[in-house]
Amino acid sequence: VPTMGPAAAPAAGPARQHVISEGDNLWKLSRAYGLSVQRILAENGGLDPMRLRVGAVLQLPVGVASMAAR
Question: Given a cut of 80, is residue 16 above it in pLDDT?
Fold first, then answer.
């Protein structure tokens, strides 16, 4: 009988990465990549949106718009 592990990943397609920079927040990233904050959180289980760390790597679904230049 198949069972799911305790930390099953979301059933999403391939992801691209975004490295958190100074001043980044989930709202800003959601606007830049055309995603909802909830989608970013779902793709990055355990992410605390109030404690993003510079240098941390977020997984974002493939096929989203490129982030605008800062």
Answer: yes
In angstroms, rounded to a whole number, what is the distance separating the alpha carbons of residues 36 and 27? 8
Whose tokens are 């790597």? That residue is: 57
Single-letter amino acid code for the residue at 36: S
At 38, is the secondary structure helix, strand, or coil? helix
Q: Which residue type is seen at 26?
A: L
| DSSP class of 60 | E
- CB of 33 closer than 8 Å to CB of 65: yes
What does pTM read for this prediction?
0.67
Give residue-wise pLDDT tens across range 26-63: 999 999 999 999 999 999 999 999 999 999 999 998 75
CB 29 within 8 A of CB 65: no
